[in-house]
Amino acid sequence: xxxxxxxxxxxxxxxxxxxxxxxxxxxxxxxxxxxxxxxxxxxxxxxxxxxxxxxxxxxxxxxxxxxxxxxxxxxxxxxxxxxxxxxxxxxxxxxxxxxxxxxxxxxxxxxxxxxxxxxxxxxxxxxxxxxxxxxxxxxxxxxxxxxxxxxxxxxxxxxxxxxxxxxxxxxxxxxxxxxxxxxxxxxxxxxxxxxxxxxxxxxxxxxxxxxxxxxxxxxxxxxxxxxxxxxxxxxxxxxxxxxxxxxxxxxxxxxxxxxxxxxxxxxxxxxxxxxxxxxxxxxxxxxxxxxxxxxxxxxxxxxxxxxxxxxxxxxxxxxxxxxxxxxxxxxxxxxxxxxxxxxxxxxxxxxxxxxxxxxxxxxxxxxxxxx
Length: 371
Known about the structure:
Elements lengths: L1 E7 L2 E10 L8 H7 L8 E4 L4 E4 L1 H16 L3 E2 L6 H12 L14 H34 L7 H11 L4 H23 L8 H39 L2 H7 L4 H39 L4 H9 L4 H27 L5 H33 L2
Parallel strand pairs: 2-3, 2-4, 3-5
Antiparallel strand pairs: 1-2
Keywords: Membrane, Transmembrane, Transmembrane helix
InterPro entries: Permease_MalE (IPR030802), STAS_dom_sf (IPR036513)
GO molecular function, one term: phospholipid transporter activity
């Protein structure tokens, strides 16, 4: 790699000669131009490639640096003196703007931070409502026979959401029923109302804790899995491929998962209710000297069908929230590995937040309607 220089009138001519390949040291364009500067003023820079041999991207790098140095010193850089192939490569390299890596100064003013938080909350709400509308439209089309669902995806999601989740749901439900019965026994014994511990356990599990605890488990398990799956597809550009073929990701990927987790959570809630009552019965029999018959009698007399129906309704709503949050965060994932992890975390946080919020609304509505 050598660069010969000469001058023609007010033009500095750079003439790279020999082979220019990456296995050889690259000359410093700035140093070459400074050393070749004549005593008289120079107005332009041109290039002569008549003595050039083999070349690769190293030559393009040198020419780009020389052109940038010339422009920085208000010189007319004549890349049109290069061969057509080199001229195009140098022009292409100059067409890409340099990325601004200077970090923006954080605005620490309270009002500014509140404004940024408000705008971010609005964007999140807008994205959630938009995604919810698309999902509801897709589910409605399937339920009315106007749309098609990928049953294989539905079956796989249903299996992963039910059979694979049974062990942890079993353990948590038994422990929750045991804890509720134990706390109730401690309080009710003070008033001689041990008999009502069965009602406390059944009411709490059927109406509240069965659906809520199972939903939280499923959020950390199934919702995170949905976000990771769709996030990985987003990174691998599989979502873009579906859209290119005219296939809606909502209909193809999201709707089967949402319907599967809604059905799965409803079944798991009934299972969790039964196990929670069994756990509470164990505490009642061992601590309160109640017989199994007494416990079941105290369970069946006050509990009404509406308690179980409210719990099932909550399970259906929670299932929709879990599927919605997991799929939405997965489709919102960026294009790198860290974005998948962030989408998974965000799906769990969003799911739990919306579940608690929905639980409060349903309980308030049930109290107003006296259900």
